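Now for our specimen.

. . .
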Amino acid sequence: MYKKFLFLIIFVLSFSTATKADEEGMTINLQEIEVTTSIKENKSIDELPVSANSFTMTQLDNQVVTSTKDLTSFVPNFHLPDYGSQMTSSIYVRGFGARIDQPVVGMIIDNVPILNKNAFDMDIFDLLRAEFLRGPQGTLYGRNTMCGLINLYTLSPFAYQGTRFDIDYSTANTLKIKASTYHKASDKFAFSVAANGQHTNGYFTNSYDDELCDPSNSITLRSRQLWKVKDSLSLENSISFNLLKQGGYAYGLITNEDHHPINYNDECHYNRVSFSDGFILKRRYANFDFSSVTSYQYLDDDMLLDQDFLPTSIFTLNQKQKDHAATEELIFQSKRKEKIWNWKSGMYGFYKHNTMSAPVTFKRGGIDQLILNNANKGIQAAFPTERLDIQEQEFIIHSDFQLPTYAVAGYHQSEFRIGKWNFTAGIRLDYEKAQMTYKNGSDIHYIFTLLMNEYEPIRSWMEGKVNKSFFEVLPKISVQYNINEKNHLYAYAAKGYKAGGFNTQIFSDILQNRLKSDIMTDLSMKFDDMIDANYDTEKAISYDPEYNWTYELGGHFSWIKDQLTTNMALFYIDCRDQQLTVFPAGKNTGRMMTNAGKSRSLGAELSARFVHENLELTGTYGYTNAKFVEFNDGNHSYNGNYVPFSPLHNSSLQAQYSFYINKKLIDKIILMADWKGSGKIYWDESNEKVQPFYSLFGTSIILQKEHFRLKGWCKNIGNKEYDTFYFVSMGNQFCQSGKPRQIGVSISYELK
């Protein structure tokens, strides 16, 4: 298989008899030139002092990119592993990231920010462009952009008019159907409507019932309306709706380095309903431009886990949440970038209210293993015939939360142009207040046969309210030397932060231990082996913000008459209070976010693209060396160890060659081949568990006739086995494997 793949690459690169490309062969013909950039920028990302990558619609289509996870390894030092479900949007950039709660990057779709990271992993379709900016973007974008920003732009009905159809069928009975229509009703009004549906049987089998554990069904609806009221005033409204029902959590047990099949007995699923509406007003005045971005976002999701991931009935978690969020941003900026002084200022605010229910159901195996066994060992050492017992065959530890959060911010950035030099300075003042009201507990019946003749009720409950406030000052300074219009050198220093929050998933552990303690108090006795951990509740249920300072040196360059473009960057990051997801030691059931002491990351990034006639070559490489400077979890010091979950290296190569046939049945053939490599990935703070560097190969062939395209493609040609996730829970080790070989065919058609 690898020899065939190598032969294909050589064949593609060596063939050179095709004629020059013409624009009629493109998938999308934009009838009207419309420059799409961030509402806060009047430059392309190639002109900004930042390490960044962008992908066009054609590149996304040709690489079979249907979700943000598909872009892993195509972006230097960007890692979004595919595991769990679409809820687990764990993003790692330059060594930093987290598995739960706040992300290290922000996401914006058509200039509307997405507040809840549970909605980050979405179906991608009809994207005009995707941009990935690395490094702190907090001065302009605020919280959770300490390592970068993802900008997604959908196709504009002012730039393209027509109707598009696409159907794709691939391995695991995976079917994807898309239809969209774009219309320009007049010079002042245009609109689009799009729908995307996906189904897959799944890739992983649960050996407990011999059924696929990761089936998925989703539908996404999207509409966009644009009004050019007059030359100085425009309005835009974007509405999207998503419904997702999927299995997932294909975690298998590991013992003595041996990987066992997935084998758990209780249902796992993730279901999501999301809705968003973003309204944008743009007004041009004589001396400045004004923009207003208003949004409402709703997310209702339901996660059910067999949380022990074993074929025994120990315990399950069912987390449900309803999240309402509203944002408002007012942006003022100078009009012409060629002036000596250009500026932008803004005010931003959001309010988010989350209602969450996360009950943990202890089944008989969990009651015995996690609550009674240790106590009865101690009891029966002294009284062989006596025991402590719980009457219920299963009971629920209820966990209910109200989590309102609001924030306000103001920012300013000035840029000074002096000859070939650009100097930029900016600052943001950001205030956020978060609150958690919790009500948690359980009611059971227990007996201690030494002292009692029948089961008696006991009630263990916790109720309370906690608040956390954060005030952040986020400065940034940069200098850029413009060698010419297409070649730039830059350096910057910037501060970023990731918001703090609350550990809702540790309450089951706290309540489990409180229940044991309440039983002992009720008996006026103490069993030393009964308590697994002593929690400082106030400290355990919350965590602090994470901060970093990033220092970067880089450049954007164009070579060989613009046939070769490159982007390069060197960076150093000083991080403190790094947020890490940990599972408590021993046979505990929850997980929590904790703040590490200090860590640092240094590395390099390179992106290159070469285009010559019908040949296109692209390549990326990212190196990240992220280590703990000070981190002690109370039991071990991890100073000098690598920060887990982020690869040391990630890289990619793609080759594309177009043959222009111009015959009756076919106009063009495109052959493509790609390679992606990633690793090492350390799975824990001790660096004892590791995923070695691995390579994935892919290829595709596209046949095109006017507005009709037929594409055959393959991912992971060699069926490489590798792990995408590893964790320890209840003293057991688990992992999820990467997806196997996928082969598919897609048909696309445009109706003008």
The chain has a mean pLDDT of 89. The chain has six helices and 44 strands. The helical segments are 2-14, 57-62, 138-141, 364-382, 507-523, 537-540.
